[in-house]
Amino acid sequence: MTRKANQRGPRPVDRDHPLPLWAQILADLRRRLDVGEFTDAFPGELALVAEYGVSRHTVREALRRLREDGTVVAGRGMTPRLAGPIEIEQPLGAVYSLFSAVEATGHVQRSVVRHLDVRADGVMATRLGLEESVPLVYLERLRLADEEPLALDRVWLPAQLARPLLDVDFTRTALYDEYARRCGVRLTGGEEHIRAVIPTAAERKLLGIGQGTAAFAIDRLGCARDRPVEWRNTLVRGDRFGVSAQFSARDGYQLGLDARRLA
């Protein structure tokens, strides 16, 4: 690597160059990242405006591209920072709580409750093995880790079992803990399907991600013994979440393909 390529600090933009200013800044920021310049902290918008002598709009466009490719995390009112490695992992083959996983990594989990009510939903009732007209408790939350959006969580529960949950403040508590404590319902197993998806524009806005970031869609049928007691759909940011599994020479590792997804 030449001394010039390894040079730290910003390079001046060329206003006569055919490449847009934001693209020049983007290329230079990537160069600076490659030489390890921002290991301690990534500069904020105003600092970059001063360094490159350009408008805030130009800096924001360069940051938007870095955000879309997962290099930095930034949003309205937030100082840009380098995106860390995947921090939240879901173990396959276990009854899993996103709340517990976030807290176990040392981060603070908080939820913004968007809906908590009783409603009829024939499709979801059927998935729970119930008559289509049976009322369901519906809970929708935007899950945050250290105030940064992590997942959009939607849960349907039989109202006959779950009505006491309507009085719960789910801002800082786990659904499964409250389900067991207030309703006497404890999950013992179920089925889960995980697939990669491209979120809708509305979902991207809620999750604070760009067009280039995929997400995991997790569909779960939770059971108490053999009785279905939960249908859940969780949309998790793909840049902050992963799945893990263990395997052995004796038992091997089985990956199930859902034929309906392949049709």
TrEMBL record:
> Record keywords: GTP-binding included?
no
Range of residues in the leader sequence = none
Q: Which UniProt keywords apply?
A: DNA-binding, Transcription, Transcription regulation
**HTH gntR-type domain sequence ranges:** 19-85
Gene3D superfamilies (alphabetical): Chorismate lyase-like (3.40.1410.10), Winged helix-like DNA-binding domain superfamily/Winged helix DNA-binding domain (1.10.10.10)
User: Pfam families recorded for this chain?
Assistant: GntR, UTRA
In the UniProt record, does the keyword GTP-binding occur? no
Task: Tell me which PANTHER family the record gives.
Answer: MANNOSYL-D-GLYCERATE TRANSPORT/METABOLISM SYSTEM REPRESSOR MNGR-RELATED, MANNOSYL-D-GLYCERATE TRANSPORT_METABOLISM SYSTEM REPRESSOR MNGR-RELATED
Recorded protein name is GntR family transcriptional regulator
Organism equals Pseudonocardia hispaniensis
